[in-house]
Amino acid sequence: MAPPKKFMTLERFINEQESMHPGATGEFSALLHDLSLAAKLVWREVSKAGLVDVLGTTNQTNSSGDIVKKLDVFADETIFKAMDHGGHICVMASEENEDILHIPDEYVTGKYVLLYDPLDGSSNIDANITIGSIFSIFKRVTTSGKGTLQDCLQPGYKQVAAGYIIYGSSTIFVYCTGHGVHGFTLDPSVGEFLLSHENIRIPKKGNIYSMNEGNFSNWDPGMQNYITYLKQQDKATGRPYSLRYIGTMVGDAHRTLLYGGIFAYPGDKKNPEGKLRLMYECNPMAYIIEQAGGRSSNGTTSVLNVAPTSLHQHTPVFLGSEEDMKLCEEFLQGKRS
Ligand code: AHG
Ligand code: MN
Ligand code: MN
């Protein structure tokens, strides 16, 4: 049987992208290769979660106060151990660790910084609903040796790469280094991520809104008016929209990237900064959506403009199609009601 039209492995694609950068040292490519291995190791446990002792919870909570699931811990440790010895990274930070994660003394440090959410959508693990892993990569700002908190706390527009792995009906590695957003589907029979979504572009407008409408009563009036507007009958403007929300940011953002529309986790009266974390959820997802031709916002400006002050800070987040985001911002800023 002839191989798929584009029998392009993630590894080959990364190498070919590297050749587009004359001064490239290969360090960044090697980092991405290590990350794709980490993704396969996490996928291996996720794909049999019901059969091995990775379901259920630990007796821990993380810095965001979330109950830590066993798969959170497994994924966190797996990604760290896959990335700590390649010599490309000077410091890491993860949702599951309060402080920055230093490279062990026995390994050399490199010029990149990795922040990650090892397992996104933890509340969905035991119900076998799509979950994911999210990563964000910066170049270090300190000059040498072990990386510091300063290397981690950079605004999102300085990311050199970002992406996610979505463990769903199939497992897809989606990433961007500033030259298009590309998706690679894992073929378990050969253990390779194969190019399946080349140069993803988000539709200019969609007809899906994705958010936890259970928080409606706590939202600002502008947000309430926007959602009420989307639900009114008006064929001329393609309303009512459909609500699709699975409670895994990776899944909801990936569908928004492919189908268009809007994903949001707004701030509200109880949590003015919302629930999602800037450094390892909102920045990488905003980078991907913007690089695919969409827009992001924290309600007033691109998420990527937010100057971080702490590793686990929250931010309101709105991501999606250009036209949907423009309309949402008009409601948020009171220009429409
Ligand atoms: P995590 O599992 O990494 O803590 O992330 C969960 C997040 C995100 O994936 C999702 O969009 C959001 O929590 C859902 O929150 P609600 O259950 O409040 O809707
Ligand atoms: Mn998450
Ligand atoms: Mn998580």
Helix-strand layout with pairing:
Layout: H1 10-18, H2 27-46, E1 57-61, E2 67-69, H3 70-83, E3 89-94, E4 101-102, E5 112-120, E6 131-139, H4 149-152, E7 161-167, E8 171-176, E9 181-187, E10 192-197, E11 208-210, H5 221-230, E12 242-243, H6 249-259, E13 262-265, H7 278-291, E14 295-297, E15 317-320, H8 322-332
Parallel strand pairs: 3-5, 11-12, 11-13
Antiparallel strand pairs: 1-2, 3-4, 5-6, 6-7, 7-8, 8-9, 9-10, 13-15, 14-15
Helix pairs in contact: 1-2, 2-3, 5-8, 6-7
The largest beta-sheet arranges its strands as 4-3-5-6-7-8-9-10
Oligomer: single chain
- List the helices and strands in order: HHEEHEEEEHEEEEEHEHEHEEH
Cα-based radius of gyration, to the nearest Å: 20 Å
Structural class: alpha+beta
CATH topology of the largest domain: Fructose-1,6-Bisphosphatase, Chain A, domain 1
CATH domain class name of the largest domain: Alpha Beta
Bound molecules: 2,5-anhydro-1,6-di-O-phosphono-D-glucitol, manganese (II) ion
The number of distinct helices, counting runs of at least 4 residues, comes to: 8
Question: Could you give the distance between the termini?
Answer: 58 Å
**Beta-strand proportion:** 15-25%
| Low-pLDDT segments | none
How many strands? 15
